[in-house]
Amino acid sequence: MQKKLQQTGLVLIGLCAGVLLSLNFSANANKTPGSTLPVEELRQFADVLNAVKSGYVEPVDDKKLITHAISGMLSGLDPHSAYLDQDAFKDLQAGTQGEFGGLGIEVGMEDGFVKVVSPIEDTPAFRAGIKAGDLIIKLDDTSTKGLTLGDAVKRMRGKPATSIRLTIARKGETKPLEVTLTREIIKVQSVKSKLVEPGYGYLRLTQFQEASAEDIAKHIGRLYKDGELKGLVLDLRNDPGGLLHGAVGVSAAFLPPKALVVSTDGRTEDAKRRFIAAPEDYLRGSREDFLATLPAGVKTVPMVVLVNSGSASASEIVAGALQDHKRAVIMGTQTFGKGSVQTIMPLANNTAIKLTTARYYTPNGRSIQAKGIVPDIVVEESANGSGGGIRLREADLDRHLGNDKEPEESVAKPAAGKVKPARDDDEDAKPAAPFEFATGSDYQFTQALNLLKGLQIIQKN
């Protein structure tokens, strides 16, 4: 029996080695001296796998065990690395195109529960008043404690017109909130624009998708249709990010040609890159350069970029580039702080892994990881300084990647925003109504507009 177990262990070690090789890892990973395949650890893994197969209370499928092992290996690295099964990989591909089914919530994990990073605008979650920082503790009658992020996302997604009940814990509320949402096909309009006053334009990005930079160019053209602009507000609040080339393209719309937008650095040569404001770094395929026909004035028009704690990843790349090149004034509150790059590595059977492969840096070499972009002018969400909810940031996430430019203890964490407590007798507490951007009640937007008008007066004098 012992001999049989040993033989099984050797077979499993060979299997593990084969899996590693199939993922393009080698015994000399990254050509680091002394980096060899960890045979003893693989033997231990094989022993555990064999113990589960032979002793677990119920039979477990080999494929399920290996899949869970891969998932655990990746999720244990950082909050953004993950194994993508067929459904998750399909959802990721659909999301970059701007259409997918579900509730419209960007989520992460915190203390074993699902935590809202940002609701996506014009979705069921946004319309129901779900806020960044909300902790989803139940999906229908199922506790989210112990669920993987992938499992929770699967439960939230489903056929359109079906409902799901979310139980939410929110700081400042005396009891959990319950809200029932009806699933929809989420068609995210990533770019919105309007002329708020004669000569003053407003652009909003809700997510960086495949066509976001091209859409920005179209909206800029519409804003300039009736003449030159005196000022422009670029709104990146609650934009969770998206595709890197989209961030480069959006930045290139406002920066001089060939200006450095962002650089990345990791352990492999492929991870060491510099992205500039040039077609080769923001176009996909052989499409025509959609930025070539932009009005000349867009390169010099006074700009304010609005950000908050929901501005993450690609949003921070754009804000950091425009800030470092002194092209725009950054206004609002400190951003999320996701300064890492994830590479999608397709596997067999339409699955993939999402692996953190690099950190990114602003043109001046600043690392945004676990810190975020600090605005040039800090403006809270309301005139009395209230923040409108818990400000969840990358630095608050378990196993977050550190900032390699600044020690962790030197990266200040701003205090959480003030939240009005619920009344003890509020039996029917519900999330607040959705916030309306770029209106008279949008304090940060009105301050941005006031600044642009002030700059216009200064320039005239």
Automatic annotation (TrEMBL):
It holds the Pfam family Peptidase_S41. Residues 1-29 form the signal peptide. Residues 402-411 have a biased composition (Basic and acidic residues). Keywords: Hydrolase, Protease, Serine protease, Signal. GO terms for biological process: proteolysis; signal transduction. CDD domains: cpPDZ_CPP-like, Peptidase_S41_CPP. The keyword Protease applies. One of its GO terms (molecular function) is endopeptidase activity. InterPro entries: ClpP/crotonase-like_dom_sf (IPR029045), CtpA/B_N (IPR055210), PDZ (IPR001478), PDZ_sf (IPR036034), Peptidase_S41A (IPR004447), Tail-specific_protease (IPR005151). Residues 402-437 are annotated as: Disordered. SUPFAM superfamilies: ClpP/crotonase, PDZ domain-like. The keyword Aminoacyl-tRNA synthetase does not apply. GO terms for cellular component: outer membrane-bounded periplasmic space. It comes from the Bacteria. Residues 89-157 form the PDZ domain. NCBIfam families: prc. Belongs to the peptidase S41A family. This is Peptidase S41A, C-terminal protease.
